[in-house]
Amino acid sequence: MVYSCINNILSLLYPDHCRLCDAPARAGLCAGCREELPYNAQGCRRCGLPLTLGRELVCGHCLQHPPAVDRSLIPFLYAAPIDRLIGQFKFSGRLAQGRLLSRLLGDHLERQATLPELLIPVPLHPSRLRQRGYNQALELARPLGRRFAIPLDHQSCSRIRHTRPQHALNKHQRRQNIRGAFQVSQPITARHVALVDDVVTTSNTVNELARQLKRAGVARVDVWAVARTP
Ligand SMILES: [Zn+2]
Ligand SMILES: [Zn+2]
Description:
Layout lengths: L1 H12 L17 H5 L24 H5 L6 E3 L2 E2 L4 H10 L3 H18 L5 E4 L4 H7 L3 H13 L8 E3 L11 H8 L3 E3 L7 E9 L3 H12 L4 E9 L2
Parallel strand pairs: 1-7, 2-7, 3-6, 6-7
Antiparallel strand pairs: 4-5
Helix pairs in contact: 4-5, 5-7
The structure holds zinc ion (2 copies).
């Protein structure tokens, strides 16, 4: 009661504004800016890669080499202004941008997703975690867990090898780079799991983790991420 009074007073003093254009807005984004976001209108069902042909559901690569990930739900392309919001969230400690991104991802999932039994944020290597102070994937996953009433597991999977950033490597190096990077240290009882991450650059990282989870007995692994690089 007291808290809701305080919140009401605060919202009168500081009406919500759009994080992109400063116009008055509900939930952090005005209708105009929301409409102009770079939507990944047709992504490959398996890896989220933006597809150009209207009728395709799965990209050629996934058809030839079916990945460990069963379904990718990635609403945006890694392009302006989403890339900027992600950068501020990840590298400048602006956690409010993370809450906005999580809300936008949730709005997309609400319309599409068969809900998993468990959410697993893609783990950071302990040294990266120390450097950043938080795992951006966990910060995105927490509000989603609350919104969809799905438990969160950020203990069972860990990143045991420090890897170089995927975007700096070629195709072959990327696969090598990520091999054996993750460990599943506890049994996972859920049959259907969703991995949560901010950006999927190549699907190598999430596929490697999905492979480990399937070895640990998980039947279906989805990916929930904010943005996909083309
Ligand atoms: Zn706006
Ligand atoms: Zn694909």
